[in-house]
Structure formats: C-alpha cells, structure tokens
Design brief:
Mannose-1P_guanyltransferase, NTP_transferase_dom, about 25% strand, alpha/beta
C-alpha cells in the first residue's frame, strides 16, 4: 500500500496542482510514485493499493495513463479519517488480506531489499515492522572538550538517533488493531511496542533514503541521485 493522501503543504507551490507523490525530483524523469511502483515491482510486489486524498483525481489520471509494472487500485477516503483510519479504510481493498503486506509513505524515495525486511519481520514474529533510517542533521555540529573549548566542526553529521523511515511490513492481524479514526502512530504502534510485538529494521549500509517534505529536499535529492548516476 502507498499512502498518498497528505496535503503536502510544506512542498508548495509544487503541490498546488498535484499531490505530493506526483512531484518529480529534477533530473529523474518520473514522479515519486512512479519510482516507488518500479521499486515495489522489482522486489516482487504484484499488486498495490494507493490511498488517495488531496487532488486524488490528478494521481488517478496519471496512474490510468502510465505504463505500470504492477496492478494498481486506488482508494479515496470519503472523509478525513486520520492516518490510522485512512490506512484501515484502504486495507479493506488489499487483494490478499490474510497475508502480510508492505506499506510506504507516498513521499519516500529509497532503494533497499524489501525481501530482507520481510524475512527480518518473519524471524521476529512481529505484528508490525518499521524500516529505520539515520538521517543527516541539516546543520553543522560543534564538538567541544571537557573544558568547553571548541575542538571541531562537522558539517551535516549523521543523527545519533534512528527514525521511522516510512516503510513498513504488517502482519495480516495488524489491520484489526488500527483505529477507525485517528493516528495509529499514537495508538497502535505504542501498544505494540509495549508488548514487544513491534520490530525495527535498520536500513542496510549504503541504502539510499530520503523523505521529500520540502523544496530543499527536492534540490538535495536531485544532487544526490545525480551523483549516484555518475
């Protein structure tokens, strides 16, 4: 499932006439969702459900005209249900509701092995598994000694914390734990964590990952992807 219903307000003006997954990183020749569908297909996914919201018709029109590498179904919320409620509503359209399923936020540009993540999820008998990334801090960091002297400057160092990378593996039973309305990250995930049924899969070393939230993210992703292509 691709969660593509957000407003994308921090990406304006790019999202004034299209939903965030339809924004194109300069130089890639494809919108974010086009990259995601290619990645999912390469990982063996045959069916995708796209949960739409903001400017859903623009996304549906592109999906209808594009040559897609897998079967795609779109779902539009009849009213705002929150992230967890929207996820549950769209999950009703999964073609195999009795099997584990992947989900990804619609603004993630990444490449790593989903098969390895699924194996990690199964080994831990988890109800839900989150991919975890270690992003770079967007500011320069300062190191000091015990006396308070500055000893070094580090430009955009890696964060000491792992974050939710917006890619998931869910057991079939996860759907029933979702709220009808509201945010599963404030309800379902904390409950599973307390029960030790929530797993975290660190992205492999060298795996590319970026969330496209702002115009600056677009510019930086374009530079990074161009550098990879050289």
């Amino acid at each position: 499932m691709i969660l593509a219903g957000g407003q994308g307000s921090r990406l304006r003006p790019y999202t004034d006439d299209r939903p965030k997954p339809m924004v194109e990183i300069p130089g890639t020749g494809t919108p974010i969702i086009g990259h995601q569908l290619s990645w999912l297909a390469a990982e063996g996914v045959t069916d995708a459900v796209v949960s739409c919201g903001h400017l859903a018709e623009v996304l549906q029109e592109w999906l209808a005209s594009a040559e897609l590498p897998l079967r795609v179904t779109t779902v539009v919320e009849p009213e705002p249900l929150g992230r967890g409620g929207g996820l549950k509503y769209a999950a009703a359209r999964l073609p195999h509701p009795d099997l584990p399923w992947y989900a990804t936020n619609g603004d993630i540009w990444t490449r790593f092995s989903l098969r390895e993540m699924a194996a990690f999820h199964a080994e831990r008998d988890a109800v839900a598994t989150l991919a975890l990334a270690r992003p770079r801090i967007p500011w320069g960091a300062v190191e000091t000694d015990a006396f308070g002297h500055i000893t070094d400057f580090i430009e955009s160092p890696p964060s000491p914390y792992l974050i939710n990378a917006g890619v998931y593996v869910f057991a079939a039973a996860f759907t029933e734990l979702l709220p009808e309305r509201g945010d599963h990250e404030r309800t379902t995930f904390p409950g599973l964590a307390r029960e030790r049924r929530l797993a975290g899969f660190p992205l492999p070393n060298g795996a590319y990952w970026r969330a496209i939230d702002t115009a600056k993210d677009l510019t930086e992703a374009a530079k990074e992807l161009a550098a990879q292509a050289r």
